[in-house]
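Holo prediction — uracil.
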Amino acid sequence: MNEPTITPRTVRNFMRALQGMGVDSYLFDEGDRMTLSKLRKEVRQCRKCPLAATRRNVVFGEGDARARLVFVGEAPGEEEDMQGRPFVGRAGKLLDQLIERIGLGRGDVYVCNVLKCRPPGNRDPEEQERELCKHYLFAQLELIKPKIICTLGRHAYNTLLGVDERITRIRGVLTTYRGTPLLPTYHPSFLLRNQNRVNEAWDDMEKLRQLL
Ligand code: URA
């Protein structure tokens, strides 16, 4: 039987996968350098807001730790809270279709949320929760250094840009976050309720494909 060929690319992809799963810092000494997995451990301990008392799991985010494209959603829902993974419910299935439209898969991108813990009953994130949690998102983006950010819905956009805009006004309009191109699109949950808007989201995915 032939031995599998291990190339530098195979090793690189393996290391990236470990980092995406948050297990690399158990295996490699990173010294004082902040990494996504160290940040993940920090966020897992977070008790800064009352959501810590009601969460089942922290949903930190997952995907390629060096992704060129990062999707930012709002907050974990029930299924995400149970599994500790972002966008694994119905909205997640639609997000997968959007990502496929760009010609990519989940493993090629990074997916996270503004809030890392579920607001009870899937209510909107509160101002104070966003304020306390947003620094984790900023740090994630700082570490991943994506080429493009795609915000899903108004909360992600408003939190990153420190504004208070309506999604229908800003969707599809390219802007920047700390120098990185940012394209806002609809939240998949909104698209599930407003299927007549899906074509606009397809257009946004086409724009992302061209920008990548
Ligand atoms: N909605 C979000 O905004 N994020 C998730 O992870 C799931 C649903």
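READOUT: The longest strand covers residues 180-185.
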